[in-house]
Amino acid sequence: RVYVSVGHQQMMTDPMKPLGLSFFLLTTNAPMRKAGGRLFVDVAPMLASPDSRENLLNTLGASDPLIKDALMTIIKREFIKELPKEKTELRAGKSHKVVSPTGFRTQIEDDPAIVADLIQRSQSSIAELKQTIQTKSGADLFAFILEDLQALKQVLFDPQSMGVIMAAMDASAWINEKMEQWLGEKKVADTLSQSVPNNITSEMGLELLDVADVIRPYPEVVAYLQKVKDDGFLDELVKFEGGQEARAAILSFLDKYGMRCSGEIDLTKTRWSERPLLLIPMILSNLKNFGPHESRRIFAQGRQEALNKEKELLERLRQLPDGAEKAKATKRMISLLRNFSGYREYPKYAMINRYYVYKQALLKEAEQLVQKGVILEKEDIYDLTFEELRAVVHTHNGLGR
In the list 22, 96, 141, 392, which could disulfide-bond 386, CB 3.0-4.6 Å? Predict the structure, then answer.
């Protein structure tokens, strides 16, 4: 067995509480093990197959090079015996089927409208969820959440969505390999993928810079934020010149990104919308370290660097033997990379959106349990699994009573 930490891949190193663990397990299709409040997946079957091994190393290595190094060490030690080709194919077809990145790419047309459509469908689904869940309570709420988790899985594991992500990853790997082989250039995909459209994580950072820009002209607001220690600060802001504008900017940011936080795959973690004070250090840091309109400058600079690098590479490729063919293939891969790589972060954003909607509904149920004396504080539900909480809501009996 070779177990890889799921949390570390998600920048989540803290242990998860039982409710957060159970929600993540209800979301994923992969078989996982729990240990010490953390989740682990056995990657040994994928390491045993040459095809899936390469895919796994590229995927994990893209987000965590240290994990890739550790897996490479295990491979060199021959800890995992490589399966013969026929057994590899049989096992892949049986339970650990891995579609190669190239296989995904051949199914996806290089059309940016695909990403726009995927995002629109996800947003419509979340809006419908927010409306429908308001009508659910008690046992109906838990049944509804389980049903909606299937809709979330459709977003996360939709073949077209996976195809977009894998096409971008494949394009990145192809570009890095071929540019080093043909031109001696290493890891150029990083430069080529700067300031791509639909990167929800990059957009979040840039939009927080815009929030700082709204606040910047108002010294009274800045001074107040430097000393504030209470989550009620949003209501107090209106007392200062520019406070109304600052409040509106922060609320607008929270409306789009307030369901996020550090360690966000754990549903029980405090969200920015639940404690807006968590944003203040980031806003003050932006005020201190960046000038006005930096978001536009940063995005434009990244885009220009990417375009310049593309132009340079294509010009150099055309000077090589078979240069026209190489340049044409590279241009197509760069287009795939720029059209699709930004979408990679979106399915997780969609998942965190849904998690927050579930959490708000469950906390309403928790308030009822507090009023009935079943639990002392509504946050006590975090120490229960989904099924345990479902049973407590059904019986109105606290565990141990």
Answer: 22
* Residue 333: partners with Cβ closer than 8 Å, 6 or more residues away: 171, 174, 175, 178
Domain boundaries, the chain: 108-401
Q: Which residue type occupies 308?
A: N
User: What is the rounded end-to-end Cα distance, in angstroms, of the chain?
Assistant: 40
Give the distance, in angstroms, between the CA of residue 28 and the centroid of all CA atoms in the same chain. 14
Q: Confidence band (pLDDT; 50, 70, 90) for 184?
A: very high
Task: Please compute the mean of the pLDDT values over residues 189-208 and round it to a whole number.
Answer: 98
HEC-encoded secondary structure of 240-302: CCCHHHHHHHHHHHHHHHCCCCCCCCCCCCCCCCCCHHHHHHHHHHHHHHCCCCHHHHHHHHH
Q: Which amino acid is at 206?
A: L
As a whole number, mean pLDDT of residues 105-130 equals: 90
The string of DSSP letters for 132-192 reads HGGG--HHHHHHHHHHHHHHHHHHHS-HHHHHHHHHHHHHHHHHHHHHHHHH---STHHHH
